[in-house]
Design brief:
By secondary structure, the protein is of the alpha/beta class. The chain has ten helices and nine strands. The strands form two sheets. It has a seven-stranded parallel β-sheet, sandwiched between helices. Strands 7-8 form a two-stranded parallel ribbon. Helix 1 links the parallel strand 1 and strand 2.
């Protein structure tokens, strides 16, 4: 039985991964800051096997943290801890500290302990729009503090592999959605439930998304391997969707009209710019889609959940919560 250490276990991805791996029979240790001592994972019952499910609390997690004592008997670290992407916070120093320097220090300690390292990066290291499907070999195109900090972290892992023989894998997901998640999926749901007309019918973009269930399956797939490939992988749901297609699928499962109508997006962005919402509209308009051939061929992985199944599952959760 492999024993896994998860950082960032109190976040959207963390609560799902902690629950999923425990149910699969792995030993799971979740690392938290002491400030999160009262946190309880809503997906994990109180009746757990304490030999396989542990929580450790660190007074401080920063670029100086010594992880060595926490890595004893740990086979693999899944590093989720990080500062999330925000439209309104683009201060580079704090992103580098949390997303780059902490990652590098933890990976250094993993290398010394011969512990495998799975890093949750982002497809945004390749930019925030594209004209053709993004591939792992495409150059880095950092465009904000979040993506630049993730690039720095990836480069640190690659360097540690060359100098200290770190065994790692990097996952680069697009927008992830699912129960307990936040972001544009939840915003679109709120707009649909309010019955508001949506001025996005003219958008002809193409975007990749990733249901949390598919991400969990990909991580499990990596953990089943004896060794990690010291490489990066893009992953996504089976099909790409345009923004109007996503909204129509959501509306279908909610059994209501999408209320989409055409409207000049340049005018819409100009109207929303004074209140700081123009960038969010730009994101809905852009194409951003991934070529997932590499993970499908090299690791023989394919997403077990269809787009429709992922959207339906997420909407059922959101309806229960509201």
């Amino acid at each position: 039985m492999k024993h896994i250490l998860i950082t960032g276990a109190n976040g959207f991805l963390g609560i799902h991964l902690e629950s999923h791996l425990y149910k699969q029979g792995y030993g799971v240790t979740s690392a938290y800051r002491e400030s999160h001592k009262d946190f309880r994972n809503p997906l994990v019952s109180n009746a757990v096997d304490t030999n396989r499910y542990k929580r450790v609390f660190l007074h401080k997690i920063d670029s100086q943290t010594d992880w060595s004592s926490y890595l004893e008997e740990i086979d693999c670290v899944i590093h989720l801890l990080g500062k999330a992407h925000s439209f309104y916070d683009n201060e580079l120093t704090s992103y580098l500290e949390t997303n780059s320097k902490i990652t590098e220090k933890l990976a250094q300690d993993c290398a010394k302990n011969e512990t495998q390292f799975i890093f949750m990066s982002t497809a945004l290291v390749h930019g925030n729009s594209c004209q053709s499907a993004i591939q792992e070999t495409d150059p880095y195109r950092g465009f904000n503090s979040y993506s630049l900090s993730k690039i720095k972290a990836e480069q640190a892992l690659q360097k540690l592999y060359n100098t200290e023989d770190l065994q790692y894998a990097i996952l680069r997901p697009p927008m992830i959605y699912g129960s307990y998640g936040k972001g544009n999926f939840q915003r679109l749901y709120t707009l649909l439930r309010r019955g508001l007309p949506l001025p996005f019918a003219s958008i002809t973009n193409r975007r990749s998304f990733l249901f949390i269930g598919n991400l969990l399956d990909a991580v499990s797939h990596l953990l089943q391997r004896d060794t990690l490939a010291n490489d990066s992988y893009l992953l996504a749901d089976p099909e790409d969707l345009s923004t109007p297609e996503l909204i129509r699928q959501m509306a279908k499962h909610l059994r209501q009209s999408s209320r989409l109508f055409p409207f000049p997006l340049t005018v819409l962005k100009a109207m929303l710019k004074p209140i700081g919402k123009a960038e969010e509209v730009e994101k809905l308009q852009q194409s951003f889609y991934l070529d997932t051939t590499k993970i499908r061929t090299e690791l023989a992985w394919k997403p077990p959940y269809s787009n429709e199944a992922g959207i339906k599952s997420t909407l059922e959760f959101l309806k229960q919560e509201t």
